[in-house]
Amino acid sequence: MTHFKKWLGLVMGVLATLFVAFTVNQQVVHAEKVTYSVAPIYPENQTDKNLGYYDLGVKPGQKEEVSVVVQNTGKKDLEVDVAPNTAITNQNGVIDYSQSDPKYDKTLKYPFTKLMSPAQRLKVPAESSRTATFTLNAPKATFEGTILGGFYVSQVKQDQVEQALDHKKGTSLTNRYSYILGVKLTQSDQTVKPHLRLNRIKPGLLNGHTAILSNIQNTKANSVGEMQVDAKIRRAGQSKVLYHSKQTDLQMAPNSNFDYGIDLKNQPLKAGRYNIKIKVNSNKGQWLLSKDF
């Protein structure tokens, strides 16, 4: 439970402390005061009302309402979009709740978005609040582990939209702040152990550099956190390490995948057979992944 709190307290891709919601500054040119906030309204099946996110125990076929409060602390009216999104793992190795139409992993049986009513746009008068209420339809069949998602709340600014249309050269960008309220659905206290596997290996780009991209997949309905990833590429059958990458504090959502990149420093990979070994240590277990390519 403690590790889940850390993930939901993510700010700008960096682990932080537990929150009611976290902000992401998506496009920045000048400082701008955030004039709204969000908070959960916990239903009766909330496991702990001090968490700062929804942790709901649900029964097969259960139908209930889940509400989000948006508080406008500014002097002007505002509009916000409140969207229920499925948690995925983005290409930075971070659990991401911001994508409205991601490509789901083939092992994900119940995307959170499919269980909730559609996104809503709220008009919130100055110095007041409004509530967005969604209908949750839990899976009719029993499920193991965790279904993970969140409400992604972003401000709609018509003046910014018009400004962007008027500046086709793309030189005028403005701030757009967002919040996330995480949602965790479970049916039992039984723990499902994550399982990581190594899928396709392919060439690609990493921060503009040539790289080898290794697709790491979590096939089970449980998140993985505090991941330390150590990857090494060698010629097949040889011991000399040609390329090495090490990262810490990575995360994976339940039933998700991402491409872990090893920078080739803009050097071409010569023709031949290679082997990659990836060691993963985490709060949920250890894995040694290996594949020839």
From TrEMBL:
Keyword terms: Signal
Signal peptide start-end: 1-26
All residue ranges annotated as the WxL Interacting Protein host binding domain in the record: 168-293
InterPro entries with a match to the protein in the record: WxLIP_HBD, WxLIP_PGBD
Domain of life: Bacteria
Domain (WxL Interacting Protein peptidoglycan binding): residue spans on this chain: 36-154
The name this protein goes by in its record: DUF3324 domain-containing protein
Source organism (scientific name): Latilactobacillus sakei
